[in-house]
Amino acid sequence: MKKITLTTVALMALLAMVGCSADNKGAAESSSASTAQSSSTKESSTEEAKAEVKIADGSSTDTAPAEGTVYMRQLLTAPHGTKSFAVVNVTMNGEKILKVQLDEFQYVSPADFEGVPNADKAFGEAFPADTVLSSKRVNNEAYSKMMADKGGATQTWEKSMGAIAKFAEGKTAAELEKAVTDLGALGEKDSPADVVTGATFSDTAGYLQSIVDAASKGKIFEGTKTASADLLEVQVLGAPHGDKSFSVTTVAMDGDKLAAVALDEFQYVSLTDFGGVPNSDADFGADVKDGLVLSSKEANNEAYSKMMADKGGATNTYSDNMKAVTQFALGKTVAELETAVGDLGKLGEKDSPADVVTGATFSDTAGYLQAIIDAMKAVK
């Protein structure tokens, strides 16, 4: 399944021929990846991967809470080309979108980009050679410079993404669908900013469609009852459980209390038993360590829970445990959650985390609560 890496000379020749904008679908990714492949091997390798790798995006058919209770929906998508995937989180009340958090992850050069948590530990051992898995949000400056250098972009990744998120706020999924249609009707001389003020991504429609999809079928994380639409949010990366995975935690604050939270982890696991993140069957997954695929634990709840049971005797599923942790945190302040973490630290060998957090049996319950605390502290 491994692709053949081009020589440095061939890579420079390939880059010299790239004339499209770094904001165009796939352009920035193909320019930034440090492992380029020959086209003939690329086609056969990609087709082989497509036949073997399953995709698990975390979609759900669960019914959303009634209006009056805020909730998050989270979905994994591929809004921009084949070399990255996105974590899309929308906070909603009824059918209205209150906030949007979207980050993308891509393999890029470790010389210029900061890796996700645990990239320098066991988690990073599965990366394609000479690359690091990075967040575009965290690496906004480096990624924006690359867009400018390769495609003449005049606006940062974060600024365009912020414009898209702002445009979605206060709208329903149906209203955003209309905007996607309007973007599709633009001519060559028109700009995405004609529909979405401030957005210059040529893939603006792709990002909006990802938000629509998340709001329509993303996994539901139920929050608290509140009439407030003035929530403050942040999405942060962490490593709450060992050195073989990293987490994405999104929190919404109502004053000093937690109104909603979503937490998921990503780990390299067997591709025969797990579904990978979007684009795992394309370029993004082509050169990872043989036999492995980058997967979401929430999207692979059944498979990951079985692995927990087989290897550690776990009796609760991953999703049930995570729901217990996140539901416990709702409505609490940072100080209250820090007290709970302290109480967990005092437990003896015969005690259970459920003695502090009802329903939670994770040995790393304190680590997950700390990840939520860290996110809450990052809200400004």
Polypeptide structure, described:
The structure is a single chain. The chain is α+β, with helices and mostly antiparallel strands and 380 residues long. It has a domain at 8-230 and 278-294. 34% of the residues lie in helices and 21% in strands. It has eleven helices and nine strands. The chain has helices spanning 8-17, 27-32, 39-52, 140-151, 157-168, 173-184, 204-217, 301-312, 318-329, 334-345, 365-378; strands at residues 69-77, 84-93, 96-108, 132-135, 219-225, 232-238, 245-254, 257-270, 292-296. The strands form two sheets. Strands 4-3-2-1-5 form a five-stranded antiparallel sheet, sandwiched between helices. The protein has a four-stranded antiparallel sheet with strand order 6-7-8-9, with helices on one face. Helix 6 (173-184) runs antiparallel to helix 7 (204-217). The longest helix is centred in the first third of the chain and has 14 residues, at 39-52. The protein is globular. Residues 1-51 have low confidence and may be disordered.
One letter per element, helices H and strands E, the order comes to HHHEEEEHHHHEEEEEHHHH
Tell me the strand percentage band.
15-25%
Overall form: globular
Termini separation comes to 45 Å
**Main β-sheet: number of strands, strand sense, barrel status?**
5 strands, antiparallel
User: How would you write the strand order of the largest sheet?
Assistant: 4-3-2-1-5
- Specify Rg, calculated over alpha carbons: 21 Å
